[in-house]
Design goal:
By secondary structure, the chain is of the alpha/beta class. The protein has one domain: P-loop containing nucleotide triphosphate hydrolases (Rossmann fold, 3-Layer(aba) Sandwich), CATH 3.40.50. The protein has 6 helices and 9 strands. Strand 7, helix 6 and strand 8 form a beta-alpha-beta unit. The radius of gyration is 17 Å and the shape is globular. Bound molecules: adenosine-5'-triphosphate.
Length: about 220
């Protein structure tokens, strides 16, 4: 599902001053393409991703998913859109420490789609295998390396087969070997499965797999 953004503005209030972070941002994001959002620290990469992910509200502007104007929706409708169409991967993994790998991966899927636990587990095993981490299915996050935790974070994001995949600094805490594995996975997954991939990264690691680089 394509995304279209028109005249997007977002500011924060800081010490009674208005800090304009996103100013008149316009863009179209298409299926099977990877978009890399770059810019120095504080330029607004995370802010832009959070607006596209419908996690924060813009000051003004329009966001369409396909033909649907999602920026005007209620919080509840946005939540539903996000659950059904979007997978989000965070820099610091955001795994639940009290759940093992497989339960972390299936949690949102079971809750949102009323799948049986058995069906969800079979799906989770497939996705964990794609990320070469199925052997850790019963491990807890504290027993995993950063690279392994991030692969679980990706598995959790893609188990619903979302059409839009958002990755906020997905490799910033990882070594070169783990970074390469994740870059190759995202490259393949988005390009071969018709996904819109939107990645923020402050280094050049994703430059080669990006179809377009957006400098903030
Ligand atoms: N909730 C907030 N309230 C006030 N200011 C904020 C808030 N969130 C972000 N900012 C400010 O907005 C600017 C952009 O922040 P953002 O996190 O989007 O940048 P970034 O490019 O992702 O930075 P980094 O690479 O360091 O993560 C920064 O100056 C930040 O201090």
């Amino acid at each position: 599902m394509n995304i279209k953004i028109e005249k997007l503005y977002k500011s924060y209030k800081k010490n009674n001053m208005k800090l304009e972070v996103i100013k008149d941002f316009n863009h179209e994001f298409q299926e099977s393409k990877i978009y890399l959002i770059k810019g120095q620290s504080g330029k607004g990469k995370s802010t832009l991703l959070s607006l596209i992910a419908l996690l924060h509200k813009e000051d003004s502007g329009k966001i369409y998913f396909g033909d649907t104007l999602v920026s005007e929706m209620s919080l509840e409708e946005k939540c539903k859109m996000r659950r059904e169409h979007m997978g989000i991967v965070f820099q610091d993994y955001n795994l639940l420490g009290g759940l093992n790998v497989i339960d972390n991966v299936i949690l949102t899927d079971v809750c949102s789609k009323n799948l049986t636990k058995e069906d969800a587990m079979n799906k989770a095993l497939e996705v964990l295998a794609m990320l070469q981490i199925e052997d850790k299915k019963y491990a807890y996050p504290r027993e995993l390396s950063g690279g392994e935790q991030q692969r679980v974070g990706i598995a959790r994001a893609i188990i619903k087969n979302p059409s839009i995949c958002i990755y906020d600094e997905p490799i910033s805490n990882l070594d070169e070997e783990n970074s390469k594995l994740i870059i190759n996975f995202i490259d393949d997954y988005c390009h071969k499965n018709g996904k819109v991939g939107i990645i923020s990264c402050h280094t050049n690691h994703f430059d080669k797999c990006a179809d377009e680089i957006i400098n903030l």
